[in-house]
Amino acid sequence: MDKPIKLTRQMKILGVILDDRLNGLAHLDYLKVKTGKILNRLTVARSRKGLSGRVLKILYKRALERIIVYAAPAWWAGSVNQRNKIITLQRQVLLAVTEAFRTTSTAALHVLSGIEPVDQVCDMETEIYKAKQGQQISTFLGRDIEPISLDAYVDQWQHPAEISDVRMDPFPSSSSLAIYTDGSKMNNRVGAAFCVLEPELSSEYLYRLADHNTVFQAELTALHQALLWKKQQRPRDLCNIFTDSLSSLKAIQKLRPRNNLVEKIKDLCDETVSLQWGQGPHRHCRE
Questions:
Q1: Quick one: average pLDDT of 204-233?
Q2: Residue ranges per domain, the chain?
Q3: What pTM does this model have?
Q4: Which CATH number fits domain 169-277: 1.20.1050.10, 3.30.420.10, 3.90.1150.10, 3.40.190.10?
Q5: Torsion angle (degrees, nearest 10) of CA 129, 133, 139, 140
């Protein structure tokens, strides 16, 4: 109990160096040493094994860049000192990829290598994190971002027993009621649609979405509207719902999708609904 408490000016938490000034410079010094060791090994491998600049670029994008921008929202502030340090760090990689003279300007190295400035990548990672957390974003890379164009998530607590476990059925159920959904984006115009077959085409519904919506959001909207129609018109009938969006089905299968629209879809899915993945019959929705 008589041991003195050791004071330190910096500490490492989950791979991030936090210093007493909280300016991120200590973490950048740590990254310079860490990435320098890896880059030295890659340079040796290039001279001995004949690795091309294209391979080094892939290794940088897949490994080194991810190491550099790891947890950027926690330490990146975009200050002048941070930008100078991180660009200097990246410059060594650009020289190795391009094999250019050391007197070549950094801007020219970015153009020759096709690698974007890492400080802008940190800006992007930080702004994406803010968007996911529902924080205010005014501009990014000189472009104004409207709050309405951000897909914000409102976390609503649910008891684990109330969370629906939705599965994609491998084969359609023996039901004469089928709904085909589709979402698309053409000429910067986004729309969703679904059509009902029982067994012939009986009705179809079209929805216009905002231009900034994605195809993924359009596919989810089509599924959501189809399930709402089914709940209102055929609540007790078995129904096969077909979609060509495998990403939507995978999102619905997640236990906690962190998407309010997906959660609404999960709540509407019951034992009478059979979700199917298919690419053919839904063309009737467009005709």
A1: 94
A2: 10-133, 169-277
A3: 0.61
A4: 3.30.420.10
A5: 20
